[in-house]
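The instructor's notes for this session suggest beginning with a concrete chain rather than abstract definitions. Hand out the sequence below and ask the class to guess, before any prediction is shown, which regions might be ordered.
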Amino acid sequence: MMTLVVRASAGAAAGAAARLVLARLAAQPSLVLGLPTGATPVPLYRHLVDAYRRGAADFSRATTFNLDEFLGVGRGDAGSYRTFMEAHLFSQVNLSPRRTFVLDGRADDWRMEARRYETAMARAGGLDLVVLGIGRNGHLGFNEPAPALTARTHRVRLRPETRRANAALFEGRLAAVPRWALSMGIGTILGAREVVLLATGPAK
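After discussion, reveal the predicted structure:
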């Protein structure tokens, strides 16, 4: 069943999504979350951090899996999604570092890394709740528009508009944005028990 919720502003939408995440976390402290990056979820993460600081949320037993990562980029790199998540959420709440999973864009074998990620999700019991943003061209995670969509975690060639949207992570230098990325597949995402899609702004 799909429920459409309309809010008057991006901030109000983020607040509504945060309340849903917090309600699921309160009901199931060992919640397994799929998390996005980009501008859209930043206000959501602010709400989650605020709830933790007020003593209204406990992430100590939760597990997170990020949707995607650039190929050739990894832990410690300024443009990596691991760095983004550390800045906006991981370092701000009591998530265990052992239970925050991000694809390793510097893995020697991307196919092996994709299989490792799928196995880790299965061992965690599957995704309970996935939060999604949507790209200007309609991409979910890094699943770009295509004649066919890949079901499981895979490598994808990024479209120019997607690379432009991520240039800010690379000091505004489009040439520095990787042309390839790893992403959960649509089948992986739809295998979650619940999915929340945030779409804000006139471009969406």
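Then share the key points. The CA atoms of residues 104 and 170 lie 18 Å apart. The longest strand covers residues 129-133.
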